[in-house]
Specification:
With 452 residues, the protein is of the alpha/beta class. The chain has two domains: 33-66 and 343-451, Aspartate Aminotransferase, domain 1 (Alpha-Beta Complex), CATH 3.90.1150; 69-341, Type I PLP-dependent aspartate aminotransferase-like (Major domain) (Aspartate Aminotransferase, domain 2), CATH 3.40.640. Helices cover 43% and strands 16% of the residues. It contains 17 helices and 15 strands. The protein has helices at 6-16, 24-30, 56-59, 68-81, 93-105, 119-135, 157-162, 166-169, 187-190, 196-214, 238-250, 272-276, 303-311, 326-341, 344-363, 398-409, 431-451, and strands spanning 35-39, 42-45, 50-53, 110-116, 144-148, 179-182, 219-224, 254-258, 282-285, 297-302, 369-375, 378-383, 412-413, 415-417, 420-423. The strands form three sheets. It has a seven-stranded mixed beta sheet with strand order 4-10-9-8-7-5-6, with helices on both faces. A four-stranded mixed beta sheet has the order 1-2-3-13. Strands 11-12-15-14 form a four-stranded antiparallel beta sheet, covered by helices on one side. A hairpin with a 2-residue loop joins strand 14 (415-417) and strand 15. Helix 1 (6-16) packs antiparallel against helix 2 (24-30), helix 4 (68-81) runs antiparallel to helix 14 (326-341) and helix 6 packs across helix 13. The longest helix is centred in the C-terminal third of the chain and has 21 residues, at 431-451. It is globular. The model has no long low-confidence stretch (mean pLDDT 98). Bound molecules: 4'-deoxy-4'-aminopyridoxal-5'-phosphate. 4'-deoxy-4'-aminopyridoxal-5'-phosphate binds next to helix 6. One of its GO terms (molecular function) is transaminase activity. This is Aspartate aminotransferase family protein. Keywords: Aminotransferase, Pyridoxal phosphate, Transferase. Its cofactor is pyridoxal 5'-phosphate.
Length: 452
């Protein structure tokens, strides 16, 4: 590999690059890690360390690293037609084909795609278009969105407002008006003496209480991640989403599934909604849609919503220069082709996820782990001060960071949110990589525990 002057690059980075979701002063002192290469399940940093990426980049590299076909699809499209817009009554073939493919893959009658560059923009899109959907049906007052505290829906004004991260709301005057939040379903911390299934119903009924408090004629939609990712992989009990769906139907509140993490096989199903057996009216997508090889997001609308937008909505006053960018949609098509033709999602569900669940449960035996939760190819280990008690450390987040840094030293990338160690590997993992995860994670848990 070509020689890289790491110290100099770190210095330049500290001088000129503001990192998202970082304390930039602290990072500048420490120095950023520079990644230089990826192949299959692994990435390499500039110092030559080979790391098992158990987080798929940022929940996105579902196909694993280094698939040449995606680069070739991008190159072909760039050479043939690098760009054209979808504004001037035009479009391009890969964008049409991707819209068709998404209509086919997503559940029920989610048949209509609007393309964006990111998950955040997809959530901005649905906020505007769903409000417009109600407004053109003479219900402009039906404009409230209900999300969840600690939910994550992106970083734009609407995305961060729909999300319920207090730290994000503090910066920039959020949330924007007419967005409300209910408490998330997190049995570990909040379930008390209820069984998970009983608790799922209780947690879902918070939505009903909130709708009744605000008035059903004011509530446009409920938005949620099927599995809440960023806050710590909160996997709701199976009863939760069914009850949420029932409530949405009863009060004619649109159900929006933010599938930015859960989509494209993360749970072993193509979409998290299928894992929980629900049919949303609207879905947002990003990340796994291209396996992170190129930026792309999408909002999917069902026939009812799209029908109103098309036939009653007039001109759609919404769009990005790169809505349906041909290079991005060509790469997405190639990504989905490989996921389908190589049976990667099915294989994850039937072969790898069950083995991963087995070994993840073994990690759950470690004295530092209070809960090992997993759904398909996404999970978390909840680190606790006293095994057997569903209680957090007094100073939340310290042990999680320690464990994350120890894992990194041991050649394993796990993310930490507070003291939850998060797992979201590429779907192409084999049993060998699951075993490697187990060895490295157990060692890291041991070493972390030893320092406490
Ligand atoms: N929704 C969810 C559930 C996410 O996890 C994320 C990103 N982590 C987003 C939306 C925002 O996507 P992006 O970062 O592509 O804007």
């Amino acid at each position: 590999m070509e020689h890289i002057d790491i110290t100099r690059l770190q210095h330049l980075d500290a001088e000129h690059h503001l990192h998202p979701f970082n304390d930039n002063a602290a990072l500048a002192k420490k120095g950023t890690r520079i990644l230089v290469k990826g192949e299959g399940a692994y990435v390499w940093d500039a110092e030559g360390h080979k790391l098992l990426d158990a987080f798929a980049g940022l929940w996105c590299v579902n196909l694993g690293y280094g698939r040449r076909e995606l680069g070739e699809a991008a190159s072909r499209q760039m050479t043939q037609l690098a760009y054209y817009n979808s504004f001037f009554q035009c479009t391009v073939e890969p964008t049409i084909q991707l819209a068709v493919k998404l209509a086919e893959l997503t559940p029920a009658d989610l048949n209509h795609a609007f393309f964006t560059n990111s998950g955040s923009e997809a959530n901005d899109t649905i906020l505007r278009l769903v409000r417009h959907f109600w407004a053109v049906q003479d219900q402009p007052q039906k404009n409230i969105f209900i999300g969840r505290r600690n939910g994550y829906h992106g970083t734009t004004m609407a995305g961060a407002s729909l999300g319920g991260m207090a730290g994000m709301h503090k910066q920039g005057g959020l949330p924007i008006p007419d967005i409300h939040h209910i408490d998330p379903p997190f049995w570990f911390a909040d379930g008390g003496d209820l069984s998970p299934d009983e608790y799922g119903i209780v947690a879902a009924r918070r939505l009903e209480q909130k709708i009744l408090e605000l008035g059903p004629d004011r509530v446009a939609a409920f938005i949620g991640e099927p599995i809440m990712g960023a806050i710590g992989v909160y996997i709701p009990p199976m009863t939760y989403w069914k009850e949420i769906e029932r409530i949405c139907r009863q009060y004619d509140v649109l159900l929006v599934a933010d599938e930015v993490i859960c989509g494209f096989g993360r749970t072993g199903e193509w979409f998290g909604s299928q894992y929980f057996g629900i049919t949303p009216d609207v879905m947002t997508l990003a990340k796994g849609i291209t396996s992170g090889y190129i930026p792309l997001g999408a909002a999917m609308f069902n026939d009812r919503v799209a029908g109103v937008l098309k036939h009653q909505g007039g001109e759609l006053a919404h769009g990005c220069t790169y809505s349906g960018h041909p290079v991005c949609t060509a790469v997405a098509l190639e990504n989905i082709r490989i996921l389908q033709e190589e049976g990667i999602v099915d294989r994850a569900r039937t072969e790898i996820a069950p083995y991963l669940a087995e070994r993840w449960a073994e990690l759950g035996e470690h004295r530092l782990v209070g809960e090992a939760r997993i759904a398909g190819m996404v999970g978390a280990l909840e680190l606790v001060p006293r095994k057997g008690e569903r209680r957090f450390f007094d100073e939340r987040g310290h042990v999680g960071v320690l464990c994350r840094d120890t894992a990194l030293k041991n050649g394993l990338i796990l993310r930490a949110t507070y003291d939850s160690m998060l797992l979201s590997p590429p779907l192409i993992w084999t049993r060998e990589q699951v075993d490697e995860l187990f060895e490295k994670a157990w060692k890291s848990l041991d070493e972390t525990a030893a320092t406490l």
